[in-house]
């Protein structure tokens, strides 16, 4: 998979710009706040339908022309097809998405058109941060591979929000139990699907991650990654979820929110039996995240036959020489777009300088 062109119109720091990328390694350099990350974000937007940094689409409009809205158009070449993704928003942030000039009515239809693996300083904190960050890692990978997963996750989150609202609004009322019975039936069904898919995703990812980590550490550490869920059997979670829903009902009523389900699950990462989330050194944590990201590429390629585009946003300074070398050895043959402040020398790389709101190929 190759992103060939990205055209920007009033998108963040860019008023009007078109960038044509090379197939291999692309180095985007410039001063801090020049707009390098904004360029990366436009590709991320066309992949997942949302920004990697901004929660509202209105925030993506160039501040110099707020009434004009924004536009991003991306062209991608895949093994057997080419596609054009266009995303626009008006001054209120109302978004419109098209794929090959045809309107996309549901954002899930965008999933899988442009696939990316995203790596940033914030992602490096994946191991030490809250479980929500590790769940997001799983969900982002799965949503790009499966529209069904994307829609089911949306459905689960909507049901969860509805259930929590019922717990708060109808607390103490006799009708609450019967309403929860109806909601819980659908919630368990969607939750079971999410848990099964996450468990399969991590099972397929694990051997690649273990192999990448072995290379990173010269075999000095034994890396392990596993999916943690309250459902007893992730391969057949329905029975466990029903039991947990019943046993947690009193706690849910008291706390006024849902205490069990895939929104509470986690990803366990350990090295030689030591839980990295609690006790890992900074170097070990970075090696673990790098291993996961490289494994994500390999796993995605094995599952879909396509190689995702790798977006590395200002991470080189976060990695020591050994980890940088491991990274560059692993990305051979993968279109990679790297942002950095200084244009380090890399064999065969294509360079772009971001300055004064423009990205110029050198």
Automatic annotation (TrEMBL):
Domain RecF/RecN/SMC N-terminal: 3-344
Keyword DNA damage in record: yes
Transmembrane stretches, start-end: none
Classification via InterPro entries: DNA-binding_RecF, DNA-binding_RecF_CS, P-loop_NTPase, RecF/RecN/SMC_N, RecF_2
Alphabetized Gene3D superfamilies for the sequence: P-loop containing nucleotide triphosphate hydrolases (3.40.50.300), RecF/RecN/SMC, N-terminal domain (1.20.1050.90)
Family affiliation: Belongs to the RecF family.
UniProt-listed HAMAP family: RecF
Protein known as: DNA replication and repair protein RecF
Organism: Candidatus Stercoripulliclostridium pullicola
């Amino acid at each position: 998979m190759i992103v060939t062109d990205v055209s920007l119109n009033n998108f963040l720091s860019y008023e009007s710009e078109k960038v044509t990328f090379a197939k291999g390694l692309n180095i985007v350099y410039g001063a801090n706040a020049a707009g390098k990350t904004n360029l990366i974000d436009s590709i991320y937007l066309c992949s997942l339908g949302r920004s990697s940094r901004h929660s509202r689409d209105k925030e993506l409009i160039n501040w110099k022309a707020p009434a004009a809205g924004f536009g991003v158009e991306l062209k991608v070449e895949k093994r057997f097809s080419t596609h054009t993704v266009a995303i626009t928003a008006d001054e209120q942030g109302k978004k419109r998405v098209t794929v090959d000039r045809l309107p996309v009515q549901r954002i899930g239809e965008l999933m899988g058109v442009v696939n990316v693996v995203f790596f940033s300083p914030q992602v490096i904190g994946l191991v030490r941060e809250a479980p929500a960050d590790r769940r997001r890692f799983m969900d982002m990978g799965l949503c790009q591979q499966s529209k069904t997963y994307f829609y089911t996750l949306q459905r689960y989150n909507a049901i969860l929000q509805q259930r929590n609202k019922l717990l708060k609004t109808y607390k103490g009322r006799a009708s609450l139990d019967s309403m929860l019975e109806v909601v819980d039936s659908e919630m368990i069904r969607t939750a079971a699907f999410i848990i099964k898919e996450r468990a399969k995703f991590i099972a397929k990812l694990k051997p690649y991650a273990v192999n990448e980590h072995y290379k990173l550490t010269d075999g000095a550490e034994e890396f392990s990654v596993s999916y943690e869920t309250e459902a007893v059997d992730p391969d057949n979670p329905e029975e466990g979820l029903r039991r947990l829903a019943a046993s947690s009902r009193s706690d849910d009523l008291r706390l006024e929110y849902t205490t069990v389900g895939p929104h509470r699950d986690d990803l366990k990462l350990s090295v030689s039996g030591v839980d990295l989330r609690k006790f890992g050194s900074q170097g070990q944590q970075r090696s673990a995240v790098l291993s996961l990201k490289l494994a994500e590429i390999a796993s995605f390629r094995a599952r879909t036959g396509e190689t995702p585009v790798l977006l590395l946003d200002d991470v080189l300074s976060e990695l020591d020489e050994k980890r940088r070398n491991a990274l560059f050895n692993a990305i051979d043959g993968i279109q990679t777009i790297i942002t950095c402040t200084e244009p380090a020398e890399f064999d065969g790389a294509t360079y772009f300088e971001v300055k004064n709101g423009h990205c110029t190929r050198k």
